Amino acid sequence: MLELRNPRTIALELLSASELPHLSQDHRLPFIEIAGDFVLLDSLSAKNETEGRDAPLAGLGKDWWVFATSGTGDAWLISTGSDQHVAFLDHDSGLDATPQILGINFGQWLQLADIIRQFESTDDPNLIADTEQSIEQISSGLFFLYPYRLAV
To answer: Are 74 and 87 in contact (CB under 8 A)?
Structure first.
């Protein structure tokens, strides 16, 4: 059974952060693979990813910056404003890539990454429905916006 944990609990366990951090471009969080498609970048790696992406329509560096990547070349973006919206950038879209806003914040992204980590560690196809439900508990409609297919 999967456990939808509090973002602060996840941050403490995985990031050694006593509080849920507000992400800034000079954050001090570690580079860590939370799950296969959830690799949180340290600030230098995030800066390099943001500057190195060739996605002119995405507003990288101005409206969004890359804070995490996937194992397949996609990117997780966070808005530069105080609202800290999370979006997904599909590298398969090439120069036409635009942020796909997910309607979640960084804490909810940590919850999503943690649920996927738990699912990947079980390797149990019977947990696909539980995983879908857990993703929906994070934010209504999130499962339909989630860019990857659940499979074992």
So the answer is: no
Q: What is the rounded end-to-end Cα distance, in angstroms, of the chain? A: 16
Locus of tokens 């209504």: 140
Secondary structure class of 83 (helix, strand, coil): coil
The token pair that represents 46 in the structure block: 């995030």
pTM of the predicted protein model:
0.95
What is the pLDDT tens value at each position of the chain, 152 positions in all?
Answer: 899 999 999 999 999 888 888 888 889 999 999 999 999 999 999 999 999 999 999 999 999 999 999 989 999 999 998 889 999 999 999 999 999 999 999 999 999 999 999 999 998 989 999 999 999 999 999 999 999 999 87
Could you give the C-alpha distances from 71 to 51, 80, 113, in angstroms and in order? 19, 24, 13
- Domain residue spans of the chain: 7-145
